[in-house]
TrEMBL record:
This is Palmitoyltransferase. Keywords: Acyltransferase, Membrane, Transferase, Transmembrane, Transmembrane helix. Its main location: membrane. Residues 173-298 form the Palmitoyltransferase DHHC domain. It comes from Takifugu flavidus (sansaifugu). The DHHC domain is required for palmitoyltransferase activity.
């Protein structure tokens, strides 16, 4: 029996016909919800049919991973899901210790009136950025992007050839293999928070990136000032910072500097890296939000034309009280009902 095949993603599905109506099953074991009902509908389902057909996987033969390969891949992702939050909290604790035990006592040693005011200002700025970073981190976890209307999740076969960690369902819903939940308007899975980023927690995630970037760059500036005052290192030449880590590593093995000094130099590069990555990632997310699109749609090639003004798209995510959200990790937009998305 000849079956027409449809290309989209990495699976193969037969197009509906009377003789193959009973074979609308994912050959790789991933169920497709509502296919038979939608394809049998004669009128009023044109838009849903088109979206369904775009989401059906591809006809190209793929080398299916073995059970061991799938288990190893998922084990690595789950391990990363645990290690990344531990790394975040460790870097946060180290930043606190360096700021209050090394930077402030060294940069502002004499408690006279002008320096006291400067010390208070610097400490307030640092605590403000750190408080907002941790607060939005907690809010990102507290308000997960899981779809409350989906009580049943699809079962994915161990032989699934999907190379990403989620399956596209209908109406901008994805099933995340790591979260084991259906995510509404999924953008990506954040390993640092251990959950998916979607419509409900996108604002908190963006603010988390902004304040984390500010905290890291501010700590970098204080660290450079600390090295300048404590060890008389001049950073007027840009090559000084570029060669600081390899030279410090050599001096450490020669016994010239201590392990604490080497660790401080290493933290300078950690702060720089995290600050730049968070800043770039934040700019990307704001651009996608303004266009009303997600990173998942970019990866799957399902980008559509902008249907609403960018002001409305930003308002849907940041709410009308967006200024309050810049200074406090609070809820500034009501959670949209999922019925509105359907």
């Amino acid at each position: 029996m000849n079956r027409s095949r449809l290309r989209a993603d990495e699976h193969t599905y037969p197009i509906h016909s009377p003789e193959n109506d009973d074979h609308l099953v994912d050959p790789n074991g991933c169920c497709v919800l509502g296919i038979r009902m939608l394809l049998r509908c004669d009128r009023g389902c044109a838009a849903l049919k088109e979206e369904l057909l775009r989401s059906l996987p591809s006809a190209e033969p793929a080398c299916l991973p073995s059970n061991a390969d799938m288990f190893t891949r998922m084990l690595k992702l789950r391990l990363l899901n645990v290690v990344a939050p531990v790394y975040f909290f460790t870097a946060t604790a180290v930043t606190f210790v360096f700021h209050f035990c090394f930077f402030v006592p060294t940069i502002f040693p004499v408690p006279d009136a002008p320096l006291w005011a400067s010390t208070t200002l610097h400490t307030a700025l640092f605590l403000f950025s750190m408080f907002n970073a941790l607060g939005n981190y907690i809010m990102t976890i507290r308000y997960p992007a899981a779809s409350a209307g989906d009580s049943t999740v699809p079962v994915c076969s161990p032989h699934c050839s999907d190379k990403v960690d989620a399956h596209y369902l209908l109406n901008d819903r994805h099933f995340c293999k790591l979260c084991r939940k259906v995510i509404l308007k999924r953008d990506h899975h954040c390993f640092f928070t251990g959950n998916c980023i979607g419509q409900k927690n996108m604002r908190y995630f963006i603010m988390f990136c902004i304040h984390t970037s500010c905290t890291c760059m501010y700590s970098l500036v204080l660290g450079v000032a600390f090295l300048t005052m404590e060890y008389s290192i001049s950073f007027e030449d840009p090559l000084t910072f570029l060669t600081l880590l390899p030279l410090s590593t050599g001096y450490f093995f020669m016994g010239t500097i201590s392990g604490l000094q080497l660790f401080l130099v290493l933290m300078l590069y950690v702060w720089l890296g995290i600050g730049l990555v968070c800043a770039g990632f934040c700019c990307q997310q704001v651009l996608l939000v303004a266009r009303g699109q997600t990173w998942c749609q970019m990866q799957q090639g399902r980008l559509q034309e902008i249907q609403s003004p960018w002001q409305n798209n930003l308002k849907d995510v940041f709410g009308t009280r967006w200024i309050l959200g810049l200074i406090l990790p609070v809820q500034t937009v009501e959670t949209c009902s999922e019925e509105k998305q359907d």
